[in-house]
Queue: 2 jobs
Job 1
Amino acid sequence: MTISDSQDGRRLTARGARTRARIVAAAADLMYVQGVGGTTLDDVLAASGVSKSQLYHHFEGKDALVRAVVDLVGERVLDRERDALGRVSTLRGLRRWRDALVRNNALRHGAYGCALGALASAVADQDDLARKALANLFTEWQELLTDVLRRLRDAGELPPDASVERLATGLMGALQGGYLLAQTAHDVTPMATSLDMALAYLESVSAG
Amino acid sequence: MTISDSQDGRRLTARGARTRARIVAAAADLMYVQGVGGTTLDDVLAASGVSKSQLYHHFEGKDALVRAVVDLVGERVLDRERDALGRVSTLRGLRRWRDALVRNNALRHGAYGCALGALASAVADQDDLARKALANLFTEWQELLTDVLRRLRDAGELPPDASVERLATGLMGALQGGYLLAQTAHDVTPMATSLDMALAYLESVSAG
DNA sequence: ACAAGAGTGGACTATAGAGTCCAGTAAGAT
DNA sequence: ATCTTACTGGACTCTATAGTCCACTCTTGT
């Protein structure tokens, strides 16, 4: 049985797929800590224990690798968020979601920020393909929030005329802005405060 | 407190100061569009019409130049914001501030994001000195917002027990997150929506 | 006026890092 | 069984870019 490569028409063996995955995973981890520009291909090779020809066998160049990293990180984040948000249908559940994100970010004192947000800021204006992929990932993430808010609305925790899409955008904005401020301050507080204000607004809408 | 080398004991003639300023201004403009990593020293030399020895006469290296860029961009943004926020004392004034930022960002369809936020994301985890400078700049910016909110509170547009510092953090978070989402989507809408939600919260606090 | 040091020009070096090549091995198709 | 192609290893090239050097010219203080 052959696994077809999603990129081009080439075949992809199980071994090849494993190598490719190791490369992307190593690149993603390095780029989260060192940044995209601060991570060299040699860094990636050393971390993944793979040779140069293997990297160039699987990717056209650094840009293609970065795009694969965007895909992987997007998948990781969305998996995590689907898990965290998939069954949330109360304001209390949303507050627990906030707590988990804040607690997790506090482990690093805010450093490195949001895996997706950092990538977005690094590549948005340099690689249009990657930018579009990231825009889609943000949209998907936001839709998870929209779904939660819709459930809140259906349960009467939000008024029937609440614009769940706009509220989800506001929530995502507060989250991303909070990540950035925390990353700059090396202190998770502004992220917590920023999210709290967004959640407080939901409460005020719910009460009104 | 500045992180530039303008006060390292060496004298600085008027001519030298002009050259130095030209270098930093060119670097700031290039880095806003191409990113920090995507801008080479040769780019900066070409854009400023200056020779390599001049650059190295005024800066120890690229890191020092980036720190000077942080200072300059910070000054520009804070000057603009002092001007925009200095006399605002009503919610309506704050909404006009929002309109101006959104209108300005719409000119580029969100591209490049916030000059300060983009620098922060690029530099925060690579250069601790620059990170601290950026953290201070964000704090100053936020204080301008705190002052506005304090005036709103004094005028009765916010309740006496409103936590103006926390509200300012939320406002700044919404702004920065909005910038990032707009930059990724190449569409100013999420920035407008994000800010609108923060302002709507202020209104709800004011009404409550 | 003139010494000292700030400022300038641009050729030069060093090297990190992207990207190439080719010889060889594993693995799926028939 | 063997043919084809995916896959691997690592030495190699090439170039972009950071950083050096030195000879020269302004500016300023005394």
Job 2
Amino acid sequence: MTETGAAPAPLGRRERKKAATRQAIADAALDLFLERGYDDVSIREIADAADVSTTTLFKHFSGKEALVFDRQDEMKAHQLAVVRERPRGQSIPVALREHALRYRQINPDDEPEAAAFLDLVGRTPALLDYQHAAWLENTTALARIIAEDSGLPADDPACTALAHFALEAPRAARHHQDRAEAITRAFDLLEQGWQSITSGTHKP
Amino acid sequence: MTETGAAPAPLGRRERKKAATRQAIADAALDLFLERGYDDVSIREIADAADVSTTTLFKHFSGKEALVFDRQDEMKAHQLAVVRERPRGQSIPVALREHALRYRQINPDDEPEAAAFLDLVGRTPALLDYQHAAWLENTTALARIIAEDSGLPADDPACTALAHFALEAPRAARHHQDRAEAITRAFDLLEQGWQSITSGTHKP
DNA sequence: AAAATAAGTGCAACCGATGCACTTTTGAAA
DNA sequence: TTTCAAAAGTGCATCGGTTGCACTTATTTT
């Protein structure tokens, strides 16, 4: 009753509690994962650590992988923003390339949390797959942006192809020692092809 | 006692029985899958139908998906062969494109079994993912062929990128009504890019 | 105050998969 | 032939992820 303030947003007590529970679960999960590795932590353990039942856990998260990528939505939005707000004159493939390269460049001394997180994902195949699948969900949105930008029809298959390949580029570079260079070369291929398609060749 | 012949190949009784068991399992699995759908058939049912234990089943197949793609090895080999034995003068991307297009063109009236199989795979996400992963395992081999053919170093990232993207092309075309056209356009992008890379830039 | 809503609980169960100890078959050596 | 070791197969128990169901709370609405 005496609690007056603390209601800046239109969030009822209920929704706040829900959010808190969700956060508690995600935090507990990430702690355990970082400490012992993804595969060596069970759902039951996480639920115990967060002091909820496994049933409750699965009402908040669609699966085990989703516990790790709690904020994947933000990353996806960020990726699209990078393309939309790219410097004038910069091509879309280049913007995507820069984004891909930047993502891999986090300094362990600078951002230890982010580094540990990336490491966790990087050494867990299940997480790599999940992340990549989520990544690809941006294909359609990205294709639309490309189409708008180049004046092609919104459903032009070439736009989808470029979007898909660009999102796939980091994976294509996976097995090379120098990943950054491999990514660059993959994007070179795409950019050259894209130039040919959008400029010349159409009508001889 | 009266069984005299029937040992033309260097296959002992043992290996024949093993192969028979494996085949029985795969057949039972495919029958059930086609009849009721992949997700609605359990491993235990398949094992029962083939009259073996689940333990035995898993000694023959690495997982549930592997029951469906019993002959994936042949398909992979075939794919590489298509590239190696392509008509003189035909580029590698074109050979891959033709192969990709041909794979999708099976006439239900002509090859009902193959059609039913493709349909089963096509409507089961788990199987699509598994198939695609197996598909991508050809990336390295394909990259090597591309490198040899174009005189680039065997580990040139551009070759890996082209191989990866080409294998990815069918997926990029997934959401278009006219899949064949979408695949063609995706390969156009790759081919143009590849030409630019291999013709120009080498040594000015 | 009562009814409607939604969070959370507890439990049992299913499914894919694995490990272990055990029996049977089979190929070949003794 | 007898014997022996490897390999195939079995049975069972168990694990971890996931879901369904019936049930108790807490909060919101009427």
